Amino acid sequence: MTTQRIGFLIWPSTKALTLALAEEVLRVAQKVHPEVVYELSFLQAEAPGEEEWRLPGEPWAGKLEGCQRLFLLADEPPAAVGSSLASALKQLVRSGCVVGGLSAGVYPLAQLGLLDGYRAAVHWRWQDDFAERFPKVIATSHLFDWDRDRLTACGGMSVIDLLLAVLARDHGAELAGAVSEELVVERIREGGERQRIPLQNRLGSSHPKLTQAVLLMEANIEEPLTTDEIAQHVCVSRRQLERIFKQYLNRVPSQYYLELRLNKARQMLMQTSKSIIQIGLSCGFSSGPHFSSAYRNFFGATPREDRNQRRSSSPFELSSVPAERG
């Protein structure tokens, strides 16, 4: 029986939920598998103000040592890290500790140069700011990233996803699956899945007709509408609709709609056991060859090739997904 020592370094902005999600995954792992032992410690990076949450933990005492993994937690980007804490964190990394940032906990790691050259999952709200401030970090819109000895999660429920990946790496996919069932997690999400960004932010526009048109497309994946039908529903002419899409999305409505359906198909390929033909039909393609051709033209691989490649590189065994035949 091996004890894993995991520390949580908490900034005052941290929401109770962020810490609770991370802690609960590890607590449940020990409950469902008694041979799994995690020794958890909680440290305050800064003294909280009078009106802020009083989360668990003692003020850090000038040294950070003894942890095999240390997670930095914040839910708003902290100001500059103090020199003493900065030195302690860098020393901890030099000693071989794996470090991670949850939610805005990526900021102090980036400020200290500890994410230079690494992939880091950054919440969509901060991506522009983060990329501008830390150009040496490979900021992604993934749910979480595990890049060598750096772990980052964008925040919210992705904290559970990252900690389940930690369990899978430490003790196997079976334990991660058991914990997800105990927590009534619908499914184990891979780190490379993209954050669901609000429609207005995804479009980069608040144009009401554009928003209405895209919402119609998203609601009619299996039986796609024609461009004329969409224009009629949103009360503009076809030519007006095409101008709006060209102005804000640099593509015509039919092209955007096709990309939307193909991205939905790819999501289903990776997350369900449905056959390729079933997925193609449910995403509005009239036949298997039509679906395969469109998919290859957009993603550079056929649906079968893409599914097999993603399965082989996944840290989790999708045992419930049967192999394709033929």
Automatic annotation (TrEMBL):
<protein>
    <submittedName>
        <fullName>Transcriptional regulator ArgR</fullName>
    </submittedName>
</protein>
<feature type="region of interest" description="Disordered">
    <location>
        <begin position="303"/>
        <end position="326"/>
    </location>
</feature>
<dbReference type="InterPro" id="IPR009057">
    <property type="entry name" value="Homeodomain-like_sf"/>
</dbReference>
<dbReference type="InterPro" id="IPR018060">
    <property type="entry name" value="HTH_AraC"/>
</dbReference>
<feature type="domain" description="HTH araC/xylS-type">
    <location>
        <begin position="211"/>
        <end position="309"/>
    </location>
</feature>
<dbReference type="Pfam" id="PF12833">
    <property type="entry name" value="HTH_18"/>
</dbReference>
<dbReference type="InterPro" id="IPR020449">
    <property type="entry name" value="Tscrpt_reg_AraC-type_HTH"/>
</dbReference>
<keyword id="KW-0805">Transcription regulation</keyword>
<dbReference type="InterPro" id="IPR029062">
    <property type="entry name" value="Class_I_gatase-like"/>
</dbReference>
<dbReference type="InterPro" id="IPR018062">
    <property type="entry name" value="HTH_AraC-typ_CS"/>
</dbReference>
<keyword id="KW-0804">Transcription</keyword>
<keyword id="KW-0238">DNA-binding</keyword>
